[in-house]
């Protein structure tokens, strides 16, 4: 009986949080409109530790200059970032050595870190050059979603991959996402224009998003987690389903790849800055008709996660904010 009461109490708490989130979303948007508190873009500046000159900053609307961009958001990642970057750079250099047509860049977005993350990032710029490794400094903490948005908007790749600074997903798994994107792109491209030759085919021009997924690991996770964590997870998935709709089993995996055309649509429109920007990406993909592919990736839990039970109210608030913003038309979508 006590167990049932606990479930009932949690259900009521979840409902109250959602209602509070809806109310907060309405109040927040009203305040924003009244004070014309529109989002203001801070200029992105790439610094070269070897030169006093600023590096010209590209934009997502510019033509691609690299094949692959990797965007890594980092907030207080002094200890986890070096290992992940070493693994990433070793993979990229090895691949570039085998394929002379392969070009890449790594964008580290320092989200207002208070530790030595900036120093670690610039050390890799010194080692590999500012053409291959770049750092964007946000100055103060905005949130993971904003850090990724900023990196995406100022990248140069035909394909753009977001990945976490902890290295929880092995970087070579990007080939799974890349291969699926290319297969779907070629199929859709030739279906639309079967008379065109391969010479006119550009992967960057076709709108596709590939989401890395840990859904295949869910059964094992359910068996090892506490019952209340599973209950909260299921509750969160239910709210996500109601907010963004069905179709993606794992919205929160931090390993996602986009073609340049898809990234241009998505990241010039995305508004959530912290916990649930992944859910907003799903919502926007559906709104724009961008093809979503979900692909299983290897994943291991790395100590130091910044997600905790206190994150749940913030997640619900953001989902409520997104739902109210889009469904009432207060959040306008750029074509």
TrEMBL record:
Belongs to the glycosyltransferase 2 family. GO terms for molecular function: dolichyl-phosphate beta-glucosyltransferase activity. This is dolichyl-phosphate beta-glucosyltransferase. It is found in: Endoplasmic reticulum membrane. Its EC number is 2.4.1.117. GO terms for cellular component: endoplasmic reticulum membrane. Pfam families: Glycos_transf_2. It comes from the Eukaryota. InterPro entries: DPG_synthase, Glyco_trans_2-like, Nucleotide-diphossugar_trans. Residues 69-181 form the Glycosyltransferase 2-like domain. Pathway: Protein modification; protein glycosylation. Its main location: endoplasmic reticulum. It is a single-pass membrane protein. It catalyses: a di-trans,poly-cis-dolichyl phosphate + UDP-alpha-D-glucose = a di-trans,poly-cis-dolichyl beta-D-glucosyl phosphate + UDP. Residues 1-25 form the signal peptide. One of its GO terms (biological process) is protein N-linked glycosylation.
């Amino acid at each position: 009986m006590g167990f049932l009461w606990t479930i009932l109490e949690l259900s009521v708490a979840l409902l109250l949080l959602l209602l509070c989130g809806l109310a907060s979303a309405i109040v927040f948007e009203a305040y924003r409109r009244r004070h014309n508190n529109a989002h203001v873009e801070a200029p992105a500046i790439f610094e070269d530790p070897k030169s006093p000159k600023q590096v010209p900053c590209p934009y997502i609307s510019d033509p691609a200059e690299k094949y692959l961009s990797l965007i890594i958001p980092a907030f207080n990642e002094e200890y986890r970032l070096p290992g992940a970057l070493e693994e990433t750079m070793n993979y990229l250099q090895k691949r570039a050595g085998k394929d002379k047509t392969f070009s890449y860049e790594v964008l580290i977005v320092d989200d207002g870190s208070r530790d030595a993350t900036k120093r670690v990032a610039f050390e890799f710029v010194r080692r590999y050059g500012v053409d291959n490794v770049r750092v964007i400094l946000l100055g103060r903490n905005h949130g993971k979603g904003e850090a990724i948005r900023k990196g995406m908007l100022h990248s140069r790749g035909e394909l753009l991959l977001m990945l976490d600074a902890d290295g929880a997903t092995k970087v070579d798994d990007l080939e799974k996402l890349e291969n699926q994107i290319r297969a779907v792109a070629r199929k859709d491209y030739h279906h639309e224009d079967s008379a065109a030759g391969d010479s006119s085919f550009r992967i960057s021009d076709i709108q596709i998003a590939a989401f890395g997924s840990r859904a295949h690991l869910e059964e094992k996770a359910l068996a090892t987690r506490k019952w209340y964590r599973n209950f909260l997870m299921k509750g969160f998935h239910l709210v996500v389903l109601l907010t963004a709709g069905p179709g993606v089993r794992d919205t929160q995996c931090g390993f996602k790849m986009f073609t340049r055309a898809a990234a241009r649509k998505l990241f010039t429109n995305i508004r959530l800055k912290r916990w649930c920007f992944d859910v907003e990406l799903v919502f926007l993909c559906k709104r724009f008709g961008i093809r979503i592919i979900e692909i299983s990736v290897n994943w291991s839990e790395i100590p130091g996660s910044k997600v905790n039970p206190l994150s749940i109210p913030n997640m619900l608030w953001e989902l409520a904010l997104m739902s109210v913003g889009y469904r009432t038309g207060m959040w306008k979508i750029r074509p």
